[in-house]
Structures are given as structure tokens and as C-alpha cells.
Design brief:
The protein has 163 residues and is α/β, with parallel strands linked by helices. It has six helices and five strands; from the N terminus they run βαβαβαβαβαα.
Length: 163
């Protein structure tokens, strides 16, 4: 799969390692991140080109990173056709995760749901709240999880993409 990857200064070192990891899984990475470290850079400058590559179909999915991942996801989601999900750490559900009342104690369930229910095409990672191993686990799960295709989810995604 061809991926758009990027970060700002907060994920500069981690993205190098994640690129090697993603390529080891057979993905082709197009790096939209900074070529040198600059602690004063601005994340939108890197998020917008990566998100545009996903929205245009140049890349099939994207992996973006920043300190919290929040601003990065917000930037990516400004590009029509991008559905960026944020992952900033393993967590377990406190209530059922779906209308059928399914419970889950999987700390990466939220990553699965971003694909199954939301067909997320960009995953935003927190460079300051995740270890490299947690990022790798989340990415492996995210790439292995397909969109469910359930009508109610497809209907909602269509509304997002048409907004």
C-alpha cells in the first residue's frame, strides 16, 4: 500500500523508525515530513500535503504524527475526503462499544473501530503519549482491520465526505 507519512518536530526521530517498520510490512512510504529538525516548525505545513495526497488518491492511506496528534488530525480533517482518526494511547471501553452491546477489554479496540466503523484513511499518532512499540502495534492493527461495510457506517461516511 502506498502511504503518505509525515510529522512535525515532535515526531521527527520516531517517524524515521516508523518508516522502516512500515516498509518492512510491505508498504511504500512517501515522506512529507521535514528533512531537518526544526523545533519551531508548524505542523499544518506538513499535514496538509500528506492529507492532500490521500484525498487525491496519490496515496491510499496516511500516517501522521505530532506531539499530541490532535492538531495534526484537525489539520488533516480540513481536507475533503480525509477521515483522520487520533490515537494517543491504549484504553479500554467503559461501556459497550456498539449498538449490539458488545464489550471489549482490548486496549487497541479504538484503533479497530476507526477502520471498522469510520473507514479512517489517516491515522494520527501522538509522539509524546505513545511509545514506539505502542505505535507499531496500533499501526499493525489499523492496517489489518478492514472497513465493515455495514450500511449505517457507509451512510455516515458518505455524509462526512459530502460535507
Amino acid at each position: 500500500m502506498k502511504l503518505a507519512i509525515t510529522t512535525d518536530h515532535a515526531g521527527y526521530e520516531s517517524l524515521k523508525e516508523l518508516k522502516v517498520f512500515l516498509e518492512s510490512l510491505g508498504h511504500e512510504c512517501v515522506d512529507y515530513g521535514p528533512t531537518t529538525f526544526d523545533g519551531e516548525d508548524d505542523y499544518p505545513d506538513f499535514m496538509f500535503p500528506a492529507a492532500q495526497a490521500v484525498a487525491s488518491g496519490e496515496c491510499e492511506r496516511g500516517v501522521i504524527m505530532g506531539g499530541s496528534g490532535q492538531g495534526e488530525a484537525m489539520a488533516a480533517n480540513r481536507i475533503p475526503g480525509v477521515r483522520a482518526a487520533l490515537f494517543y494511547g491504549p484504553v479500554t471501553a467503559k461501556v459497550p462499544i456498539d449498538a449490539e452491546g458488545t464489550m471489549s477489554d482490548d486496549p487497541y479496540e479504538i484503533v479497530k473501530l476507526s477502520r471498522q466503523h469510520n473507514d479512517a484513511n489517516v491515522l494520527s499518532l501522538s509522539g509524546r503519549f505513545l511509545t514506539l512499540d505502542e505505535m507499531k502495534t496500533a499501526l499493525r492493527i489499523w492496517f489489518e482491520t478492514p472497513f465493515s461495510g455495514v450500511e449505517r457506517h457507509a451512510r455516515r461516511i458518505h455524509k462526512l465526505d459530502e460535507a
